[in-house]
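Please fill in the sequence for the structure shown.

STRUCTURE ENCODING:
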């Protein structure tokens, strides 16, 4: 079994706690599903959000969907001029028995422009 990193991101319409939780829940659910990851496979999850998202921690979404026992960390993304606004990025660390090229990264909504080469 290998340790793999799975990337994902989503863009939030407005800085609203409910929208952040709903959008991040959707992102996490898709990331786990397309990579066939079970909760027991998870090592940790790191969230970053752009500075314009401050009404809720993205980790709340993880706890909401049953990932409360997984180590979770939230941080603020660096404020690069002209970068895409209202984005939550996710890096999941998990035990996966597959090659790097088989890992599926998930970019939803407006965040799909961040990595067109990886977006599903």
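FILLED IN BY: designer on duty
SEQUENCE:
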């Amino acid at each position: 079994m290998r340790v793999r990193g799975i990337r994902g991101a989503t863009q939030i319409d407005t800085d609203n706690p409910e929208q952040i939780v709903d959008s991040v829940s959707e992102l996490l659910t898709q990331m786990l599903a397309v990579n066939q990851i079970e909760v027991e496979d998870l090592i940790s999850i790191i969230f970053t959000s752009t500075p314009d998202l401050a009404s809720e921690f993205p980790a709340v979404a993880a706890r909401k969907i049953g990932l409360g026992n997984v180590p979770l960390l939230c941080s603020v993304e660096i404020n690069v001029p002209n970068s895409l606004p209202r984005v939550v990025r996710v890096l999941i660390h998990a035990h996966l028995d597959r090659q790097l090229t088989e890992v599926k990264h998930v970019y939803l909504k407006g965040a799909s422009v961040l990595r067109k080469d990886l977006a599903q």
